[in-house]
């Protein structure tokens, strides 16, 4: 009797599972659609926001290097690299994204100067980076946006000296 009751209970559970599998499939499909929509609705910064971020880190890099604050300079050049990686990742539809790789050699040069803690090499590699930014702007029809070596710190609430 126990075996028959157990067998009937198992059959009922299996049958219930079979009949509700369609509704579970539909529910899962709806959940997948809802999650896809949430992913698609996530905020992705526009190209201008990425460029503004680059501009801030470009300026902060200059003042850190000029002050000989090599750990801060290393941090700022790393932030520049991350922002460029994000452009490549999140702005794939933009022609400009394909050309940001031209900055890689200039960034490598700045990194080498920072590693050597060499102020003369830093200035020349930073100038190369700045000129490369302008070359990229020219190549992408944004030549009206000219980057220069900054003369005023972007933030008055940050100490750049080590």
Structure report:
There is one protein chain. The protein is an all-alpha fold. Helices cover 73% and strands 0% of the residues. The chain is built from six helices and no strands. Helix 2 (47-66) packs antiparallel against helix 6. The chain is elongated and about 70 Å long. The mean pLDDT is 88.
Task: Walk me through the topology.
Blueprint: H1 2-40, H2 47-66, H3 70-90, H4 95-99, H5 104-116, H6 119-139
Helix pairs in contact: 2-3, 2-6, 3-5, 5-6
Q: Write down the overall mean pLDDT.
A: 88
Q: Give start-end ranges of low-pLDDT stretches.
A: none
Structural class: mainly alpha
Task: Give the SSE order as H and E letters.
Answer: HHHHHH
Q: What tags apply to this protein structure?
A:
6 helices; single chain; 73% helix; mainly alpha; 162 residues; elongated
Short description:
The chain is 73% helix and 0% strand. The mean pLDDT is 88.
């Amino acid at each position: 009797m126990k075996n028959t009751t157990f067998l009937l209970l198992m059959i009922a559970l299996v049958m219930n599972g079979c009949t509700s599998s369609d509704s579970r499939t539909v529910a899962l499909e709806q959940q997948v659609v809802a999650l896809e929509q949430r992913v698609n609705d996530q905020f992705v910064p526009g190209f201008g926001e990425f460029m503004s971020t680059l501009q801030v880190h470009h300026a902060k890099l200059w003042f850190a290097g000029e002050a000989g604050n090599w750990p801060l300079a290393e941090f700022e050049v790393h932030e520049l690299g991350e922002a460029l990686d994000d452009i490549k990742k999140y702005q794939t539809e933009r022609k400009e994204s394909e050309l940001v790789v031209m900055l890689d050699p200039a960034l490598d040069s700045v990194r080498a100067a920072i590693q050597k803690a060499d102020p003369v090499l830093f200035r020349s590699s930073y100038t190369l980076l700045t000129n490369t930014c302008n070359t990229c702007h020219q190549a992408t029809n944004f030549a009206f946006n000219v980057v220069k070596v900054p003369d005023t710190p972007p933030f008055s609430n940050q100490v750049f000296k080590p």
